[in-house]
Amino acid sequence: MAQKVHLDIPEMDLREDTIVEAVAGRVPNIPPSAALSVLADVELTGVDRQRLLRDAVQNAGLDQQVRAGAVQIYARVAGEESVPALLQALEDRTERVATAVATALGRVGTPDELEALRRLRTGDSGELLRARATFAETLIIHRFGLTDPEVAFSPAEVLPAPSSAGALVFTSARPGPARRDRVLKAIKRDLPAFDVGKHDVYEVQCGPRLLEIAVDRDFGGLGGMDRLMSRPAAPAVVAMQNQEHDDFYPGLIALSAPDGKDGVTVRLSRLSGDAVYVADGSMKGNELELGVRAVRAPGATPVAARVRLTTSTIEISGTSGSRSIPARIPQGM
Fold first, then answer.
1. Given its phi and psi angles, is residue 46 left (phi above 0), alpha (psi -120 to 50 degrees) or beta?
2. Is the pLDDT of residue 138 over 90?
3. Is 264 helix (H, G, I), strand (E, B) or coil?
């Protein structure tokens, strides 16, 4: 989740040479994280943000954590143009940096980067890097609707439907234009390949939590539903509201795959790749109906939702439990 950092840095310190030194950890009153945050969010006169971030990504002499942060921000700022420098950063085989690169490639990369991700996934690396590379491959395959190679979702245990006692009922509505624009801008910030102009936004209020669901219009109507039935896709992103700052951030991404002749299966995963909800559906006449359930995981809350796609609209409704399910405790022998 992207966090907005509030900085109080004198304007005289926001020069290019000072920022370069700060990223390297050589300015006492400006930590590297603050310098990177400036490059992420502030347009500065006379400062080439993309060049400075690219240099940081390629600078093997920087602290690994700083370089990993630079990778994330450079991909966000430069989008697909960041790919050559990201790939070059893999050459020094630094696992923390490689993990950040894998994550970034899933969000801004193209099918041309699948081989590099495959090498990361199958190489002699740590579990976290392999997991990030695997999810990055999955993201690219779904973003581009590739049918080769095939990707199968790993099995997921779902929670039972919430008990009716104390359950929270929700249904979708359309937000006003100001909130819609805020949501789409927030999603674009962390997912640079996201096309703001192609999405409609649906709002769900469930207890204190406000969810904004951005749905790609390419998957509306009969033609769009047919595409969901024929190839992998990334039809929606769910933005959540940070109750502390009142900002939105992309919390979940929906990835779908055909399931038989008239069926589709969907996973809603965090941007780290962890599945949160699963959905299965099928065509009934000119409608596609999906049943959504929560995945069993520490802190998960039971959910039973229904998504109905018609030729002209999308309806989302359901119930959510008011208590999360505790993590399972291993039993002794």
1. left
2. yes
3. strand
Q: With contact defined as beta carbons under 8 Å apart, do 202 and 314 qualify?
A: yes
The per-residue pLDDT for range 261-314, each reduced to its tens digit, is 789 999 999 999 999 999 999 988 889 999 999 999 888 899 999 999 988 889
Q: Cβ contacts of residue 210 below 8 Å, gap of 6+?
A: 203, 204, 240, 241
**Domains in the chain, ordered, with CATH?**
11-143 (1.25.10.10), 168-320 (no CATH)
- pLDDT tens across 188-205, in order? 999 999 999 999 999 999
Residue ranges of the alpha helices (H) in the chain? 16-23, 32-41, 49-58, 64-78, 83-89, 95-108, 114-122, 127-143, 177-190, 221-230
Token pair recorded at residue 106: 């899933």
> Residue 159: its pLDDT value, please?
94
Contact 238, 249 (CB under 8 A): no
Q: For residues 132 and 251, give the distance between their C-alpha atoms in angstroms, rounded to a whole number.
A: 16
